[in-house]
Write a structure and sequence with these properties.
binds octanoyl-coenzyme A; single chain; 13 strands; Peroxisomal Thiolase, Chain A, domain 1; 11 helices; alpha+beta; two-stranded antiparallel sheet; 375 residues
């Protein structure tokens, strides 16, 4: 009896949803500094007698130099830029309306579906892979599946900034094992919802966006053969968010900034760059890919200096312009979606047989590598 061929997973299409508002560094810094002035004026007596330290102003020049970020897209700009509010204002919707995170995911998925030649009925699984779901249940993925009229099953997964590559690997394994003919992975990120806009060290880091990826087993021209996927995790407290449903059970209550995103940025930088570079090189070696011959790197978009260093280590030289795609200048860090935006917006010029790398890294620590070849 002939053994049935194992389907080879491919990325068949990607999609992007860009939120309606953009905030420049200058706008963000101006709101932050107005907040700082007000805080220092209101607490002048306590500052004068040393009971509390004055808050320091932020700087647009620092932000661009330290991170490479010039602006970011967000779902609501008015609340973020109001020094008395400094968080997005996103009114809760009734249960019979689509939730905002699912709506963004559906918009990105629709973009991907419109670029895909395959039949919608082939999609037998939807994975919502993102940093923070807006609720624990029902799964965001099931709401997306329902809105798009898809069959099969759907579930959420959270591996912070690495969620998209973990989702792609899971989808690729579903394809190889014959679980389904096609998988939709969506990455809706409202990072502004869990960013502390009053924290000078991190108020500039994140933006909102949604991406989508369709993975199938049909090797059609123009699709991307997945040459290999690899995942890695290593526990670290250096990027952390303690928000959760047990907060209400804690006698001290929800507290303030520690239930939002916090990080030790310098340590993250120092520890993650070597971890990810080594992982990429080892994975390439193990699957017979020459990293120096990769046409493009679509890396996670957290910090331009991190990406420059990883790019140099992987390619073995200074990347030429456009080889190491940077989109964080206008999107900031969009968590799981960053490497997918990079891939989506910079792959048109590939000829059949040319290769590239999608790679994400972030909290956990976690990292994922997906080597692809244009068909
Ligand atoms: N304006 C002016 N000066 C500032 C500011 C500011 N806003 N902030 C800090 N400074 C000053 C500091 O006070 C310090 O001054 P001094 O030298 O006098 O003490 C100086 O600038 C340098 O400060 P840092 O050492 O903090 O600055 P860095 O050069 O390290 O840059 C970065 C800070 C940009 C944060 C950098 O460390 C970095 O990008 N690190 C990597 C971070 C990273 O990749 N994090 C991953 C997070 S993503 C993830 O996985 C989480 C997913 C969950 C999503 C959550 C959504 C909200």
């Amino acid at each position: 009896m002939e053994t049935p061929a194992v389907p080879q997973p491919v990325i068949a299409a990607t999609g992007l949803y860009v939120p309606p508002h953009s905030i420049s560094n200058r706008e963000l810094v101006s709101a932050f500094n107005a907040f700082v002035e007000r805080f220092n004026a209101e607490n002048a007596a306590a500052i004068a007698d040393g009971r509390i330290a004055p808050l320091l102003p932020s700087s647009a020049e620092f932000i661009e130099k330290a991170s490479g970020i010039k602006s970011r897209h967000v779902m609501d700009k008015t609340g973020i830029l109001d020094p008395a509010i400094m968080r997005p204002i996103l009114p809760e919707r009734p249960n019979d309306q689509i939730s905002i995170l699912a709506e963004m995911a559906v918009a990105a998925a629709t973009d991907a579906l419109n670029r895909w030649a395959g039949p919608k009925n082939d999609i037998g699984a939807v994975i919502c892979a993102a940093s923070n779901m807006q609720r624990p249940y029902p799964a965001m993925a099931i709401e997306v599946q329902n809105t798009l009229g898809l069959g099969g099953f759907a579930f959420d997964m959270n591996v912070a900034c690495s969620s998209a590559t973990f989702g792609i690997k899971t989808a690729a394994d579903f394809i190889s094992s014959g679980s389904t003919k096609a998988v939709l992975v969506v990455n809706p990120e409202i990072c502004s919802g869990h960013l502390n806009f009053r924290d000078r060290d991190s108020h500039f880091i994140f933006g909102d966006v949604a991406t989508a990826v369709i993975i199938t087993g049909s090797e059609t021209a123009g699709a991307w053969r997945i040459l290999g996927t690899r995942l890695k995790t290593q526990f670290s407290n250096n990027i952390r968010n303690n928000f959760g449903f047990l907060n209400r059970a804690a006698p001290e209550g929800i507290g303030k900034s520690d239930k939002l995103f916090v990080q030790e940025g310098r340590k993250v930088f120092k520890e993650v760059v070597p971890m990810v570079s080594e992982m990429i090189l080892a994975h390439a070696r193990d699957i017979g890919v020459d990293p120096h011959a990769l046409k493009r790197l679509w890396l996670h978009q957290a910090n331009i200096n991190m990406n420059d260093m990883i790019g140099r280590k992987v390619l073995g030289r200074d990347p030429r312009p456009g080889e190491n795609v940077i989109i964080l200048d206008t999107f900031a860090n969009t968590s799981s979606a960053g490497s997918i935006i990079a891939f989506h917006t910079a792959n048109d010029d590939f000829a059949a047989g040319e290769r590239g790398l999608i790679c994400s890294f972030g909290a956990g620590y976690s990292a994922g590598t997906v080597f692809v070849e244009k068909l």
